[in-house]
Amino acid sequence: MKEGQKKSIAGGNIKKQRSNSPEEEMANKSGPSNRVKEERVSFIVSEATETDKCSSEGSSLSGFILKKEEQVEDEDFTFDEPCPKKQKTSRACLGHPTFSPSSAAQTLRNELNMNWDLIELLSNLTCVERWVCENIIMLLREDNTVPFVVRYRKDMINHMDADSVRDVQLVYQELCSLAKKTQSVIQTLKKDGVLTTDLEQTLRSCRSVDELDHVYAPYKKGSKLTKARRAKALGLEVAASALMETPQTLDLRKWLKPGVEGLSSVEEVATGVEHILADMIAKDPETLTHVKTLCENCPVTIQSSVSKAALKEKVQGKGATKGHKNTAAQAKNKDIDKFQLYCDFTCNIQRIQPHQTLAINRGESLKILTVKVNIPDRVKSDFSRWCLNSRWRPKTMPREEHHLILKNAVDDSYKRLIQPFLSRSYRTKLTSAAEKESIAMFVRNLRQRLLAGPVRGSIIMGVDPGYKHGCKLAILSPTSQILHTDIFYLHASSQQREAEKLRYLMSKYSCTKVVIGNGTACRETESLFADLISRGNFHPLDVSYCITNEAGASVYSVSPEAVKEMPDLDPNLRSAVSIARRVQDPLAELVKIDPKHIGIGTYQHDVSTSALKAALDGVVQECVSFVGVDINMCSETLMRHVAGLNVGRARSIAEWREQNGPFINREQLKLVKGMGPKTYQQCAGFIRINPQTSTVSSLPCVPAKAAAKKGKGKAVISVSTSFNPLDQTCIHPESYHVAQRFLSIVGGSTDPIGSSQLRQRVENKLRSSSMEELAKTVDTSTETLQLITDGLTQPPGFDIRQNFGQADFKQGIVSMSDLQVGTVLTGRVDNTALFGAFVDIGVGRSGLIHKSNITPDKLPVNQRRRSLALGPGERVEVRVLNVDHQRGRIGLDLIRVLQ
Question: What is the CA radius of gyration of the chain?
Answer without folding.
Answer: 33
